[in-house]
Design brief:
Layout (H helix, E strand, L loop, with lengths): L7 E5 L3 H13 L3 E5 L2 H11 L3 E5 L7 H11 L5 E5 L4 H9 L4 E4 L5 H56 L5 E3 L3 E8 L7 E8 L3 E9 L3 H23 L9 H15 L5 E9 L4 E7 L6 E4 L2 E4 L18 E4 L4 E6 L12 H13 L5 H7 L12 E8 L2
């Protein structure tokens, strides 16, 4: 049973004795061998059969071995070529190596083991070069596919960001000519897990919330779509009723908690939900693990709102509590997601909260002014999504 070939070798030599002796020896060593009598014939076989290695005489009539070497190196630089010569000088050796030869042997080849060693070493080198080329081509193909995928992903993310922006309420926006709402969302990625909404509930009540969904990106942004849908449902509910009952923030958080758990999205959120009653000058609010605490400025005095509550979307038996506060004729209410804490220079949490209280206490016309005070104006990169909600009543 014949052994499989260890490689395909082309021998180009104008001396029949040398050519045949090389072919016999290499054939006995397990190689498949083709022979050529001159450079023209050798190049024709090389282009037709694509051997793994070429052994080429340096001095041949008509088509010199160096010309053959140059042509082969130009057409297939990975194919190793061993040059042999009986009258070569050091200049010939250097020239051959510079033109792509992997080895240079001198005639007569008395010790054929030296030739076989050179052949096997050159074949290994040629195989490595081919493998490297294949790996490089595969990497280039993979990179091209990855770039196309990233381009598509970026297009999808950009489309999602435009949709998410359209879901946000207008900013700034005025209710009943005196109550000004504004917001600012600064995402850490294309899409944000932070969301803000405010909406009218009857003639004198305004509902609002700031939500911070766990995580970042598209999966968190999906939950904000659910929240917007719920908000629209609430608005339609009250628009259809002749008399409106007060919306309870705690009942709203309970409903969101139950729906999130039933949806099994693996997401939870922190929320600050409130209802401002302009006729009775009061704020009804509920907090579900929202931090830092919202800040109310009543007649120029700033204080953090009480209440912590449980995260929304984790505990099926979670309960939430409504808190009622009187509002001055002139007040400001500011809520921020916890991403703002990541950009404050202070080290301790107490110092960060005090810093926020001081900034809000100075008064800000809208969310953009607050962002500027926090050095978040312009295009900034942030480690976590940041949402700002600013509510002002003039009188």
């Amino acid at each position: 049973m014949s052994q499989p070939s260890q490689g395909h070798i082309l021998v180009i030599d104008d001396e029949p004795v040398v050519r045949e002796s090389l072919a016999v020896y290499l054939g006995d060593s397990g190689f498949k061998v083709d022979t050529a009598r001159n450079g023209d014939e050798g190049l024709a076989i090389f282009r037709n059969k694509h051997p793994d290695l070429v052994i080429c005489d340096l001095r041949m009539p008509l088509f010199d071995g160096l010309d053959v070497l140059k042509a082969m190196n130009s057409e297939s630089p990975e194919t190793p070529v061993i040059v042999v010569s009986g009258q070569g000088s050091m200049h010939d050796v250097v020239t051959a190596l510079r033109n792509g030869a992997v080895d240079y042997l001198f005639k007569p080849l008395i010790e054929m083991e030296v030739l076989e060693h050179s052949v096997r070493r050159a074949l290994e080198r040629g195989q490595l070069l081919k493998q490297n080329r294949q790996i490089r081509e595969q990497l280039e193909l993979t990179n091209a596919e990855l770039e196309r995928s990233l381009d598509l992903l970026e297009e999808d993310q950009e489309a999602g960001r435009r949709v998410q922006r359209r879901m946000l309420p207008p900013t700034p926006h005025v209710f009943n000519e005196t109550c000004h709402f504004s917001h600012r969302i600064i995402p850490s990625l294309y899409l944000s897990g932070d969301f803000v909404d405010y909406f009218r509930i009857g003639p004198d009540r305004i509902g609002f919330y700031l939500a911070d969904v766990s995580g970042h990106g598209a999966s968190s942004a999906f939950v904000t779509v659910f929240l917007k849908t719920l908000t629209n449902r609430i608005q339609r509910h009250y628009e259809k009723r002749a008399s409106t009952n007060a919306l309870s923030p705690s009942r709203l958080l309970t409903a969101i908690n139950q729906e999130l758990i039933s949806m099994a999205l693996g997401k939870h959120l922190a929320m600050f939900v409130g209802v401002i009653d302009l006729a009775e000058n009061k704020l009804v609010y509920c907090i579900g693990a929202h931090f830092p605490p919202p800040i109310l400025v009543n007649d120029g005095v700033a204080h953090a709102l009480a209440g912590r509550g449980l995260p929304v979307g984790i505990f099926s038996d979670a309960t939430f509590e409504d808190i009622v506060l009187p509002l001055a004729r002139k007040f400001s209410l500011v809520a921020m997601s916890d991403g703002v804490l990541e950009v404050l220079p202070e080290e301790s949490m107490e110092e960060k909260e005090a810093h926020l209280l001081a900034i809000v206490g100075q008064g800000h016309q809208d969310a953009d002014a607050l962002a500027a005070a926090l050095h978040l104006d312009g295009e900034v990169e942030v480690p976590d999504d940041i949402a700002l909600l600013v509510i002002n009543r003039d009188a």
